[in-house]
TrEMBL record:
It comes from Ciona savignyi (Pacific transparent sea squirt). It holds the Pfam family PUB. This is PUB domain-containing protein. InterPro entries: PUB-like_dom_sf (IPR036339), PUB_domain (IPR018997). It comes from the Eukaryota. SMART domains: PUG (SM00580). Residues 16-90 form the PUB domain.
């Protein structure tokens, strides 16, 4: 699966990509490291972190949806019982995109 969200995320300026990708990676890792903890499976839309580190950047919300999150009133939730396969795939693609961006940055210097 080629993630449209990750493709859009990569088109952000490098500093914006770093903010959004770091946040998405942290969300995914927290879920994978704490599978049974519901508190890591939802993100309030009105939270400062969501407003500052996800919402402003192209592709970031799409990545959440592709991970398996669903809009759930005032938050995005990855419901218990949802397969983590998509989350793992998007995590892998964000890591790969991060490495490619780093490589391009160093080769341009």
């Amino acid at each position: 699966m080629n993630s449209e969200g990750v493709q859009a995320l990569v088109r952000n300026q490098d500093s914006d990509f770093k903010i959004a990708s770091t946040t998405l990676l942290r969300i995914a890792r927290n879920i994978l490291e704490n599978v049974k903890e519901d508190k890591f499976r939802s993100i309030r839309i009105d939270s400062k972190a969501f407003q500052d580190k996800i919402l402003p950047f192209d592709g970031a919300v799409q990545c959440l949806l592709e991970m398996g999150f669903q809009e759930d009133g005032d938050k995005f939730t990855l419901f218990t019982g949802t397969s983590l396969a998509d989350l793992k795939e998007i995590l892998k693609q964000i890591k790969s995109a991060t490495n490619l961006k780093l490589a391009k940055t160093f080769s341009a210097e």
